[in-house]
Request: fold
Amino acid sequence: MKIPKSLPFIASSLAVVLLCTSFGALAQATVPVVPLENSPYGLAALWNGSDLVARTVLVLLLIMSAGSWYITVVKVLEQSKMLRHAKASQAFWSAATVEAGTQALAADSAFRFMADAAHNAVQKHDGLMGHIPVNDWLAMGIQRAVDRINSNAQQGLAFLATVGSISPFVGLFGTVWGIYHALTAIGISGQASIDKVAGPVGEALIMTAIGLAVAVPAVLAYNWLVRRNKAVMDEVRAFGSDLHAVVLGTIKA
Reply:
């Protein structure tokens, strides 16, 4: 039985959800429940008690998280669309002519883009370009189209890689900054009891947790999308290779 390519990503997501649920249940069993609006250790207290730097870190993490989720959804939809077009491109080979096969492809299909590139290469094989062998000129035109499709398919993945790499350190910076201010406040007040330390230090450590919460989905999404991109580009390159042979055979015939 063929294993779906999305299974590793789904399994990893379920594992994270189950792990978070287990820790949440353990925390509820060992820590008294305090209403969020009255809790001195929650996110609201962190925001209200933080300075401009800490709030900037929180906003940056929020932007990175929102951006990574947006790119993930958009790339999944784009890749799914290209895979559908790959299946539909089989109708191209059943057509009587290259022009008829091209018209059978969707107008926004990457495979239609390659077919049009091959047609344009044949039409523009004149002037100085006419000195280039038609085989090489046609291969160059199709390869340019493949490179353009690959470039578009890679868009957004660099952002996911960047978020996955730097967001833990951004959260750690917020933690260090929060602990510094907590220790400064303790030094000024001269009180280092647990009730004075737990709140500020706990709120600072939340920054690290938020950084990891931003990084983990971005890394999982990046690895999954790169694997799907490879499958998509394999279909694109295979079509381009076959297209080159068919168009070249049509010209020589």
